[in-house]
Amino acid sequence: MARDAGLRSLSLRETRVARLVAQGLSDEQVAEHLGIGVMDVSTEMAEVLRKLGLRSRTELAFFAAERDDKGERGRQGS
Questions:
Q1: Do residues 27 and 41 make contact, with C-beta atoms less than 8 angstroms apart?
Q2: What is residue 78's predicted lDDT score, i.e. its pLDDT?
Q3: Which of 53, 62, 42 is nearest to 5 (CA)?
Q4: More confident residue, 54 or 2
Q5: pTM greater than 0.70
Q6: How many CB atoms lie within 10 A of CB 14?
Q7: 51 CB contacts (<8 Å, ≥6 apart)?
Q8: DSSP code of residue 22
C-alpha cells in the first residue's frame, strides 16, 4: 500500500508530530510538547500529509484510528 511506504519514509520528528496531531493536539500544543516552534510543526505536518497522500488533519486522525483498530484486532487474535 502506498501509505505504508509513506509511513516508512517519515522522519522520527514527523512521526512524533503526526501522532500528537492525530490525538487532537493543536499546532501550539504539539510545539510545546516537543519543544519546537509552531512553524516547525506546520512544516512537519505538510510533509506528513504529502508523504501519506492525505489532505487534512482529519484524514490523518482517521488513518491513525484505522491503523490502531487493525493492530488491536491483530493482537487479540494472537
A1: yes
A2: 38
A3: 53
A4: 54
A5: yes
A6: 19
A7: 6, 9, 10, 14
A8: H
Phi-psi sector, 40: left (phi>0), alpha (psi -120 to 50), beta:
alpha
pLDDT at residue number 75? 43
Identify the residue with better confidence: 62 or 4. 62
**Cell numbers given for 54:** 492525505
8 A C-beta contact, residue 3 and residue 53: yes
Question: What structural domains does the chain harbor?
Answer: 2-76 (1.10.10.10)
Q: Look-up: residue for cell 510545539?
A: 31
User: Which helix H or strand E contains 48, and what residues bound it?
Assistant: helix 38-52
Residue 76 has pLDDT above 70, yes or no: no
d(CA 35, CA 30): 8
Place of cell 490525538: 23
